[in-house]
Amino acid sequence: MIDIHCHLIHGVDDGPPTLRESLRMTEEAAKAGTKVIIATPHIKGTDFDFDYIFEHLYDLAKAAGEKRRESQAEVPEIKLGSEVAINPILCDQVKKYGALRLADTRYVLVELPFDIIPTFTRDVLYKLRLKDYIPVIAHPERNRQILKTASFYVELIDSGCLMQLDAASILGKNGRAVKSFCKKVIKANMVHFVATDAHSSKSYVQLAVKSRRRVESWAGRDFAEIVFVTNGQKLLRNEEIESCL
Ligand SMILES: [Fe+2]
């Protein structure tokens, strides 16, 4: 797996509290076959401290590197990104701060609120596309308006956005309606990534392995390979990803 959405960095937002727990997450990820994790701390508004995030990322990457050398253990490569809450000045922020993009590519992981679709959403996503950034919508299945009116989901893809579903949603951990929505869009091949969105080591393996099996049963092994691996590889190479429509 290439895990493009994961709260891996210790002491940052609601991720693991300690470096030890972050390292444990990388061990669990290795067991699940994850080769690359993009660590995506929540970024909301203008109140963020990249120096603090970079410092913790550096400590984690160093400790993971030592672990790899000492025990020759399989440790996933760690890259930096952000899960950015949509806001009216998002495009300007992305231009200014490279760390808001996924692994230094033109892909941007954008989070919508859970209850509404803000009025400026279309405008902000359009501006990003105009500047050649590619919005990846984080867990759209967890937005109540999208659940009700799937036409907005199609409109987002039509306008050049890519869709990232959470493994937990696919496994029914966010409710039956969310799971059934996931099944529909996966069967229609209208999904581009599945990520763990994990916050701890506890259920990482289960999230990654079981959700992949579920996607295979709904849409076949080839499609599962695309949304768990191939599109992630393309993203890391900053290549174009087909919208599947
Ligand atoms: Fe997240």
CATH class equals Alpha Beta
Q: What form results from the Cα inertia axes?
A: globular
- Report the uncertain regions: none
Helix content: 40-55%
Overall SS class? alpha/beta
H/E element order: EHEEHEEHEHEHHEHHEHH
The side-by-side strand order for the widest beta sheet comes to 3-5-6-7-8-9
Radius of gyration: 17 Å
CATH architecture: Alpha-Beta Barrel
Amount of beta strand: 5-15%
Total of domains: 1
CATH homologous superfamily, by name?
A: Metal-dependent hydrolases
Bound molecules: fe (ii) ion
By DSSP (H or I, 4+ residues per run), the number of helices equals 10
How many beta-strand segments?
A: 9
CATH structural fold name: TIM Barrel
The largest β sheet comes out as: 6 strands, parallel
Query: pLDDT average, as an integer?
Result: 95
Q: Quote the distance from N terminus to C terminus.
A: 23 Å
Compile the SSE list and pairings:
Elements: E1 2-6, H1 19-31, E2 36-39, E3 42-43, H2 50-71, E4 77-80, E5 83-85, H3 90-96, E6 107-111, H4 121-130, E7 134-138, H5 144-148, H6 150-158, E8 162-166, H7 167-170, H8 176-187, E9 193-195, H9 204-219, H10 221-236
Parallel strand pairs: 1-2, 2-4, 3-5, 5-6, 6-7, 7-8, 8-9
The chain binds fe (ii) ion.
Overall description:
The structure is a single chain. The chain is an alpha/beta fold and 245 residues long. It has one domain (2-236): Alpha-Beta Barrel (TIM Barrel). Helices cover 47% and strands 15% of the residues. The protein has ten helices and nine strands. It has helices spanning 19-31, 50-71, 90-96, 121-130, 144-148, 150-158, 167-170, 176-187, 204-219, 221-236; strands at residues 2-6, 36-39, 42-43, 77-80, 83-85, 107-111, 134-138, 162-166, 193-195. The strands form two sheets. It has a six-stranded parallel beta sheet. A three-stranded parallel beta sheet has the order 1-2-4. Helix 9 (204-219) crosses helix 10. The longest helix is centred in the N-terminal third of the chain and has 22 residues, at 50-71. It is globular. The mean pLDDT is 95. The chain binds fe (ii) ion. Fe (ii) ion (FE2) binds at residues 5, 7, 83, 197.
